[in-house]
């Protein structure tokens, strides 16, 4: 898992790429701590280069949802495709996030 979080007007632009799996779970707390410091208006999450996500990786999105929901932050998922999008759709994440 590789990621970047950039501050933008009113929120954050987040890119997650590679494989979001159990092997990357030790990075999740750092990622969430960085994200928590960003403005809470909107978070745009770009997944165009996310190749795969397993159940542990899916838990990161649950944490993102919880944090965003508590702060009234709008989250939009951009560019999810292939196995990553399929996993997110099976988990009904379209009911939690807007997908574009």
From TrEMBL:
Classification via InterPro entries: STAS_dom (IPR002645), STAS_dom_sf (IPR036513)
The residues that cross the membrane are: none
Quick one: signal sequence residues?
A: none
What PROSITE patterns does the entry give?
STAS
Any idea where the STAS domain is? 1-100
Pfam families from the xrefs?
STAS
What is the protein named? Answer: STAS domain-containing protein
- Give the species: Paramagnetospirillum magneticum (strain ATCC 700264 / AMB-1) (Magnetospirillum magneticum)
């Amino acid at each position: 898992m590789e990621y970047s979080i950039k501050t933008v007007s009113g929120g954050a632009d987040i890119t997650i790429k590679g494989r979001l799996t159990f092997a990357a779970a030790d990075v999740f707390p750092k990622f969430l701590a960085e994200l928590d410091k960003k403005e809470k208006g909107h978070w745009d999450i770009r997944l165009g280069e996310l190749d795969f996500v397993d159940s542990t990786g899916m838990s990161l999105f649950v944490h993102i949802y919880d944090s965003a929901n508590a702060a009234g932050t709008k989250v939009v998922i951009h560019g999810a495709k292939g196995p990553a999008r399929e996993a997110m759709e099976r988990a009904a994440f379209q009911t939690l996030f807007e997908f574009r």
